[in-house]
Write a structure and sequence with these properties.
Order of helices and strands: HEEEEEEEH
Largest sheet: 7 strands, antiparallel
Radius of gyration: 28 Å
Strand content: over 45%
Helix content: 10-25%
Number of strands: 7
Oligomer: single chain
Distance between the termini: 84 Å
Structural class: alpha+beta
């Protein structure tokens, strides 16, 4: 009986809060730049400036919200380097479809100042892309006269 009373009070509290505030649905467009920096040893990697753009949707209710959308994003880099007797250059530009899904909690510690905490994940799938590489052999003259032997003990 006590559990029934507690559940009833909880449902009454939730129902009264639902009656006070309507759920909101917002849609918009998000866009921006992707600036990435890669760090590796042995090659000189430089980032390429990319973009992301697409429609986004938000459903909010009682301070909580769910955000999602469908974004097209580009990522890429250029690299140069040497590996033993080879010189290489590489150029990469990839296009992704991203579906962000985040949950947020909005609160106002001061009436004119709102804050929110958000967490979630981005799922991405590569749509199309191009990777071009050029490899050159260097120091051919030095290697032609050498004889390589292996000794086993």
């Amino acid at each position: 009986m006590m559990m029934f009373i507690v559940c009833s009070c909880f449902l009454l509290l939730v129902a009264s809060s639902f009656a006070q505030k309507k759920p909101e649905f917002n849609a918009g467009i998000r866009g921006g730049l992707n600036l990435m920096k890669y760090k590796t040893e042995g090659s000189d990697l430089k980032y390429k400036t990319g973009f992301h753009a697409g429609p986004v949707f938000e459903f909010s209710f009682l301070g909580f919200g769910i955000n999602t959308g469908l974004l097209v994003s580009t990522r890429g880099c250029k690299s140069k380097g040497e590996f033993f007797y080879y010189k290489f250059e590489s150029d990469m530009m990839l296009y992704y479809a991203e579906i962000p899904l985040t949950v947020q909690y909005m609160f106002k510690p001061i009436p004119m100042f709102g804050m929110f905490a958000e967490f979630g994940e981005y799922n991405a799938c590569r749509i199309i892309g191009q990777i071009t590489s050029k490899i050159e052999e260097t120091q051919k003259e030095e290697r032609l006269g050498k004889i390589y032997t292996t000794q086993l003990d």
